[in-house]
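Quick start: what a row looks like.
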Amino acid sequence: MKTPGCKGYFLTRRNMLGATGAVMLGLSMKQLLSLAAAPAAKAAAKADQAILFWNGGGMSHIDTWDPKPGRPTAGEFDPIKTTADGIQISEIFPQVAKQMHHATLIRSIAGTNGDHGRASYQLQTSYNQSPNLRHPGIGSVVVHEKESISDLPSYISISGEAPRAGYLGQKCEAYYVGLPGEKDPYLSFPENINHVRGNKRLDILKKMNEKYNAANNDPRLEATQTAVDDAVRLMRSPALSAFDLDKESPETVARYGENAFGRGALLARRLVEKGVRFVQINRGGFDTHSNNFPAMQAHGDVMDPALASLIADLHSNGMLKRTLVMMISEFGRTPRINNTAGRDHHAACFSCFMAGGGIKAGYVHGSSDIDGVRPKDNPVKVPNLHASICYALGIDYDKEVMTPLSRPMRLVDAPGEPIKELFA
């Protein structure tokens, strides 16, 4: 039986004291059993997999999920009705509007970082940046805690690199896909090397590495071998065909969009169908300090058909209930429109989109004030968002893992708690 988690975590003195502390305190067997069962009670376990659309640069909340019609901050886009009663979104998402009865919006995320780097770090890890510790991204947390169920990598990042796994180790790093639909040249032998000859070379490489690693006690060698083993297993797996978008009909490809974002969304669907635990699709260009409105319309033209098609297809094939889909950015944009027709960084209040994975459908959590400047009710802190993702996936969000230096770290920064109202 496979076990969740990554290699490299062994019983230390600190672990031993934590495990035996309850006994030394004189707790009864009934109390011990209650403590052992407590983490399971925290996990909803509605989702098996997750897809994260990461929109880097700071996506305007007012021009997407939280329109402010009739206000000076509204900008050039009108709100449109959706299939969810009483919920309106920006006109740049006409097809997504037809899928909103499957989705939820959070309109009251209260961020604290207005710098791209620090905000991106926190939104993707739940932690503020530290000079001496790299925290793992949410995708690495998920694959650390969820058992692998596919020959494919458990964590795949498309059209951009994902956050590093930090102290969770090499097994929890993302596999990077540069251009969705194109074959990875590193997962096949060169044209002049046939499979028999190539496999012999791989066997020789393995023996050489084993001999060298045995003579050199360096944990980096184990991490390197893990990466090599994963790559070889993927090369030899029939599941590799999931990356081949030519197996989809031209009509389907066109429906998602003949562009990197559309192909990325389509690839994400194919990957979760094959058991990949966490897929991240990256898109930049949201730092719209000038000419915000033509830029956001161009983004909408690309993102709208891809996101809508993904939600519709996951619903049609029965996977939406078990697949958590999210779209988020590091912060929003200022409600005030500057003198170059742009919006600047705004961390105090912004929004995100969620669907599937046990998330309540046709629901809006929280609200911003009349101009979208600050949360009006139900403010959501970043760790609460991460705890909610973990909760949906059946992960104990306040579990501690031990770093290689025997420092205990929570999976989600304290005092992160799930937003229970999000769940049906």
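That is the whole record. The first strand starts at residue 49 and ends at 55. The chain is about 35% helix and 15% strand.
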